[in-house]
Specification:
Order of helices and strands: HHHHHH
Number of strands: 0
Distance between the termini: 64 Å
Radius of gyration: 19 Å
Shape: elongated
Number of helices: 6
Helix content: over 70%
Largest sheet: none
Oligomer: single chain
Structural class: mainly alpha
Length: 201
């Protein structure tokens, strides 16, 4: 029995299964909020425990952080353009902007990995202090999520190329866009409360 399709709705919402899956993913994002809230709380309670190791003002480089922020926030914008193309049934535009989004995301991960390598060379490791332990766990968890998002989106791109735009592939694309925007919001909090609030000393 074929699923009933309501063509009055956006492509990703046209079947009941798609609507349920999207709702389920919103619930999953609620669990992700709890995860990151816990990591932020741990960081907040440990951020002043340097144990004689480097302080944020000594470690953080505004240039690197700004590059990371520019890459990730721009990727959120391009992801939005990808969904705009999807809703206009423009598969070529959707694929183009998704690939641009992933390239920006990969650039973010590359800069962040280099940032971590720099910190380690400066003697800042997870074992150095409670501040650095909580910092690396928070930033590493976010970076891992971005990396997983890139891999997930690549699989969706393969499905789009193979099957075209259908209610199913549209739903999967929309869900990855929600995930991507969520990671951008988390980064705004990291940028504000971990980097900007600590660079002055």
């Amino acid at each position: 029995m074929m699923a009933k399709v309501d063509k009055s709705l956006p492509l990703e919402y046209q079947t009941e299964q798609s609507r349920l899956n999207i709702l389920g993913f919103w619930i999953f994002l609620g669990a992700e909020v709890v995860l990151f809230a816990t990591l932020f709380a741990a960081y907040g309670s440990l951020k002043d425990n340097f144990a004689g190791g480097p302080t944020p003002a000594e470690l953080f480089k505004l240039k690197d952080v700004m590059i990371e922020t520019l890459l990730l926030l721009t990727s959120s914008f391009t992801c939005g353009i990808a969904i705009w193309n999807m809703r206009r049934h423009n598969l070529k535009g959707l694929l183009t902007w998704l690939i641009i989004t992933l390239a920006l995301g990969a650039g973010f991960v590359f800069v962040e990995v280099n940032e971590f390598i720099h910190y380690v060379h400066e003697g800042a490791t997870m074992q150095t202090s409670a501040f650095l332990s909580s910092f690396f766990v928070l930033l590493g968890t976010h970076g891992l999520h971005v990396s997983l998002g890139i891999g997930w989106a690549i699989l969706i791109i393969i499905q789009l190329i193979k099957h075209g735009l259908t209610p199913t592939t549209a739903r999967k694309t929309f869900i990855i866009s929600l995930y991507w925007h969520f990671l951008d919001v988390v980064w705004i909090f990291i940028f504000t409360f971990v980097y900007l609030a600590r660079m002055g000393g």
